[in-house]
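Input sequence (272 aa), recorded before submission:
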Amino acid sequence: MKRGLLLVLLFLPLLVLAQEEKIHEFPRLRWGIDVGTDMFDGKTVKNPNIRESQSYYYDYPFYIDDRFYGGFLFNSYNYTRYYIGIKPEYSLNHRVTVAAGLRFSFNKSELNSDQKYFLWKVSEENLTTNYVQVSGVNQNNFYFGVPLEVKFFPAQSDMLVRQYFKMGMLFNFLAASQNSVSFIDENMKKYGDIVSKQMGKPSFFTGYLYFGIGFNIARMNHPFGSIEIQAPVRVFNNKKLASFIQEPAEGFGLQATFYIPTGKKKLSYTYY
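Predicted structure, token format:
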């Protein structure tokens, strides 16, 4: 009897300690650094200066294919955009956060012939039309964007790995666009500025609605990270991602973020 009582007295402090109520706090505000990529399947928009006559390029009818414009340009185009940004995020409560920031994004687009070249009209006067043989055109586009986001956490408590769902909008503005041209004949390089100017630029503004699912990794009272999958959806129609790419309806994206908590206002929760 005495031995049993002694054991209870020895282990009782451990049982009480195990059930002790603990308070965990994390700052409501944190600064995040985003890096990510968005991938789309766009539609090729043929410049009116490209000669359409298929017979000029091919001598055999079996080259005709619905995947091509006029037999020499792909009908579809894979578009990939890379970005980095800074984004402050604020917790309204244990489950909901809001965020807004600035994002810098970059894309390099190429339009090449499936053969050696395609013909580009550089001038037309009366009955005379001048063409150059272009093997490909490139366009580098740079954007500044403003993302607005809302996150929802199904679990109220902060955990080492915590799932969330996200909805956001991105307002993207063209900052700069650079065109370059490759010719079959080196002597045609003098027409580079003319072709570059005729290529034009993408739309100045593009907007997206996107949805995502992700995970916070590590507790939010210390620097932590997150990884997520996004599904961007086009909001505004008839926009060009490049001067020769029509904006698609939807895409796929990946994003990683590193957060640094800051500020005196904090959220707390109880755990055992």
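Checked by second reader. Confidence is low (pLDDT under 50) at residues 5-19, 54-71.
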